[in-house]
Each structure stands twice: as C-alpha cells, then as structure tokens.
Design a protein that fits this description.
69% helix, two-stranded antiparallel sheet, mainly alpha
Length: 101
C-alpha cells in the first residue's frame, strides 16, 4: 500500500510551520526585549527583523567554516575523534615534495 502525496507532505508542512512560528515568536520576543532595554522602537524592530538572517548565517555559514578550519589542524578519521596535530597537514601539503606544485 503506497502513501498518497498528501500523507507524506502534511508532516513536512507541519514541521515547517512549527519552525516558522518559532522564528516569528523569537523575533517578537527579541523586539520586546530590546524595547524594554531602552532601544528605540524603530531600531529594535530593525534588529529583530534581521535576527533570523543572522542566526541562519551563524548556523549555516560561519559554524561549518570554523569547524572545517579546526579540522584542517587535526588528524581526522570518521571512526575516531579528531586529534590536534597543528600545522603538520599544511607542512605535508606545502612541503618539499613536488606534489603540490
């Protein structure tokens, strides 16, 4: 028995609505908190409206960049935790061997 497209779509739609509602509630609360701290209403509203973009940037851009930079200084194996080795990976890549050039 195959599930209809609507049966598979509804749970995803509900999750997206929950995430969107959560972001909306956080935006309103952030606006309210800034106004209570004495920030002008217009300025607080502007900060509150860019907050979802800032959170998305931090989660989807900055965190992966920073973590991959950290991993470049480690010996990494999927089955074991990363072990910090410093600049050894860069020495091996840019060293005296002609593989890089």
């Amino acid at each position: 028995m195959q599930a209809s497209a609507l049966e598979t779509y509804v749970p995803t739609l509900l999750r997206w609505l929950a995430v969107g509602g959560g972001v909306l509630i956080l935006t309103v609360l952030f606006n309210y908190a800034l106004q209570r701290l004495g920030v002008r209403a217009e300025t607080a509203r502007g900060y509150a409206l860019i907050m979802p973009w800032i959170i998305g940037f931090l989660i989807f851009q900055l965190y992966p960049f920073a973590y991959s930079l950290y991993l470049s200084f480690t010996e990494y194996n999927i089955f074991q935790p990363p072990r910090f080795i410093g600049l050894e990976n860069y020495r091996e890549m840019l060293g005296d061997t002609r593989t890089f050039w």
